[in-house]
Amino acid sequence: DYAVHLYLGTLLLQLDGNAAGAVDEFAQFLAADPSATVVSQAAPTLRQAYAAAGKPLPVGVPAA
């Protein structure tokens, strides 16, 4: 379920400051093929996590 990975990634990023762990969860979130609407809604958090982890933003995530 993509929602679980989105939730866990958000917690790792915002509560623990663990960008690398968040990116791992977000990669699983994206692999579960959520709708474009869900990805767009999550995009600000995804951008924050990938930037903090020093990783490129995955294809399909809006840059801004």
Q: What would the keywords be for this entry?
A:
64 residues, mainly alpha, 3 helices, globular
Walkthrough of the structure:
The chain is mainly alpha-helical and 64 residues long. The chain has three helices and no strands. It has helices at residues 2-14, 19-31, 36-53. Helix 2 (19-31) runs antiparallel to helix 3. The longest helix has 18 residues, at 36-53. The protein is globular. The N and C termini lie far apart (25 Å). The model has no long low-confidence stretch (mean pLDDT 96).
Short description:
The chain has helices at 2-14, 19-31, 36-53. The protein is mostly helical and 64 residues long.
Mean pLDDT: 96
Give the radius of gyration.
10 Å
Broad structural category: mainly alpha
The portion of residues assigned to helices is 55-70%
Stretches where pLDDT falls below 50 for ≥5 residues? Answer: none
According to DSSP, the number of beta strands is 0
Q: Give me the number of helical elements.
A: 3
Main beta sheet: none
Shape: globular
Spatial separation of the terminal alpha carbons: 25 Å
H/E element string?
HHH
Q: What percentage of amino acids are in beta strands?
A: under 5%
